[in-house]
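dumping the sequnces here before i forget
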Amino acid sequence: MVVTAFLHGLVALLVAPALVGLIRWVKARLQSRRGAAPWQPYRELAKLLRKERVVSQHASWVFRVTPYILFGTTLVVSCLIPTVLAPTGVQVFGDLIAVVYLLILGTFWLALAGLDPGSAFGGMGSSREMTVAALTEPTMAIAIFALALPAGSTDLGQIVRRTLEMPTSALGPGHVLAFAALFIVTLAESGRLPVDNPSTHLELTMIHEAMVLEYSGPYLALVEWASALKLFVFCVLLANLFVPWGVALSANPTAIVVGIAAVLLKVAVIAVALAVFETRVAKLRLFRVPELLSASFVLSVVAVVSAFLGR
Amino acid sequence: MTPLSALFVVVVPLYALAAAASVWPARRAQIGIGNGAAAAGSAAALVVGAGALRPASDALAAVALLPAGSFAFRLDGLSAVFLVLIGLVGTASGVYAIGYSGDYRRSQLATMGIAQVLFLSSMILTVVAANAFTFLFAWELMSIAAYLMVVTDGSAETVSAANWYMAIAHAGFAAVAAAFLLMSAGELTVGFDVLSKVSHPTALKNLIFLLALGGFAAKAGIIPLHIWLPLAHPVAPSHGSALMSAAVIKMGAYGLVRVSFDLLGGGPSWWGGLVLALGAASAVVGLLLALVQQDLKRLLAYSSVENIGIVFMGLGASLLFRSEGLDALATAALVAAIYHALNHAAFKGLLFMGAGSIVHATGTRNMELLGGLIHRMPWTAALFLIGACAISALPPLNGFASEWLLFHTLFGAGLVARPVIGVTLPVAIAALALSGGLAAACFVKAFGISFLALPRSGEAAEAHESPLSMRAAMTLLALCCVALGLMPGAVTSLLARALVEPGAASVVSAGGAVELVSPSGVGRVAPLAIGALLVATIVLAALVVRAIVGGRIRIGDTWGCGRLVHTSRMEYTAAAFAEPLRRVFRELYRPTEDLVVETHPESPYFIQGIEYRSDVNPWIERVFYRRLSRAVERAGRSMRRLQMGSLHVYLLYLLSALIGLLIASAWL
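..and the predicted 3d for all of it:
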């Protein structure tokens, strides 16, 4: 069990920066730019990890521990989700609800760190980030319920196994609607367009980038790595909860190699889809974002109703 | 010696000592012995309660003290759980008050000391009451104690708050008393054990339930009866606020469990649905109102409305599942509700005491005047942060464990056959999730604005750390937050054994002491394992970073777009932090905005001053009470017509009343 968690954490840790790089590269090509190579984020992380840390004189220990906590929670989350392997039996650590609350734990501390140096940018980012986080949570809970209802469990591995056993359920209305709802949640939670723009630093529309403005050096590396991990986690959830084929069911070497290949392929497809989507849409005004999030909430409620009636 | 007699033999003398010391002429005795004895007595109650966590009840013979009725006491599992809760909060508040009450005058010390003892003893009496007479007596005593506690400061604001409290508490008392009178057919001294065996006609049973629900919801601060709570809790001395928010409002939950589960034995499914809906509304609206507060203690008070709402959601779900015949889920929901009540006692007590430390250090509750306290009050800041994480349901602390269990219980909707319930329960799940997300936002604001960044006033810049006793009390509660979170399996199995029956404990404790298992057995979580994994990754990351760059950190300035001086005016404020959510939920808040721009008489382009004023005007707090107060006024006006000041007319009233009575008596 612990070995599985370790494997999942390792895969996420290694692959996540490439996912961000891939999205940026595809976006650049779609916009007729040459773009940096997909492995550029690794170079950036290596550079940042060697740089000096500069911390504001007004900041407290909260600012200094937050990068570690954020990185730690996101890494733990990526250990808990069935990236490659969905073992039989129930996970010892936690289920989908634990995953959601662990992600909030990271967001909570990052928002505090945004307020800590006393800059208006950080406060603005924190306030907006917490608004978006608070509004996505009901959608996530209901979407989880829509998935857990047919599987009879909130355990991620069980949901994957159940869909594999009954392939037709992946096309059921409950499943498809929950997918749509979770897709919007993914956009909001990982700070993608149209909710937040990951490539701007100096616009007043920014959320995440404003919050982490004061970070530098290894701290910034950890924060960037954590947001890449978070994006990877959501992509894996989208990929494996809804299209679970390829996920290894037992821990034999071939199945694991197939599992890794399958998840890489699926996440790459989602990355390309995200890049295309981000190229096509414009950033929403901040106060229009709640409308998008309530649309995803309605989707998830309809998902539950159809999952319930279609049992 | 039975636990109940131990309770009376040990706790009563200690509380008597505390009361006597509170009115003693020497300040030191008032503060030290008064509060110390109250803490010791509460600790004894905690120990007795912990020893009695089992379903078997332990009764004491009825004691006739007053001609009007006789007192009777009983200690069963449900009482024991609440005894533990009261004991825990009482111990912490007593210890805290030793350091906190130094600034008060002698007369205030006496009021506070008496109020504290009255509070603790009336709550203990409430939970060990074995007949309606004892229960109502203790219930009323509790209201009086709260009144005393609230008016300690003596300002106009406190008196108005206390009057609101008294009005609603008495309306609630009337409802509860009516419920008991109906239940026992007028005989208030009939024991609860006899009452629980009486079966009532359906309509009467529903009426009793509704009256009891109204009364207990008023005590608990359920929306729309919550209006007194954010007025009264903030103005009391902080250990009193902690007692009221952490323990007293739980008495509403206790009363509801005692009456609807124990005495009435459950009811139709709309009972559960009603309680669940009230709880969900309180959870969401309470937090939305908490979010826009600038007064730290008022924010905490509104958040109590949210948490008691979560407790009521659990109770409602339990009633609902029971009426559907899903006993395992009903047990799990009841356990989740009581578990959350216990958790809320720990973290809300902690948070109110943290807020009290801020008031003690700076003299203000207004967050817009705070900031930067983490540098001056490192202990209080760290302890407050633990409480903030716990109340936001962040793993691996205790708020997470109880909300996880409640989530899983509500997921049990999948087992309900009736589509109406199965489809509406997800709305409750959404309410719970929304309140969880809003709680995180609210407590980022509460902690971040008060403790982080630069001080926004001279008082905050000069703040000092609290004395040892205050820190000790907060540390005790913080440790409880951690322990209750890391050992969820142990807590839930104890609760299930105490609340239901030994066999039912297996429903929620299949995973051992450190693991929580969902009632259907398919989801599980081990906060201890998550916490260990988290600590391991954090330490590893820190070691790796240290190995690469060493421990050196350069201290610089906050980046300010080239600006040279950084002042607290450039920080985000509490009001600004909540602004996005205030816009999203504009319909609830109905904000008023007032912008006055003062320009130079020569040219409108030279602005001399800008004044911006904004307030929220939540209709949900007004609509109900405006109508009520109008109706009362109208009734008063029509009554006034009777009173015309002429003695002859009054004699006529007397005469006609007398004749009327004579006729009536002849008739009957």
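Residues 2-309 of chain A form one domain.
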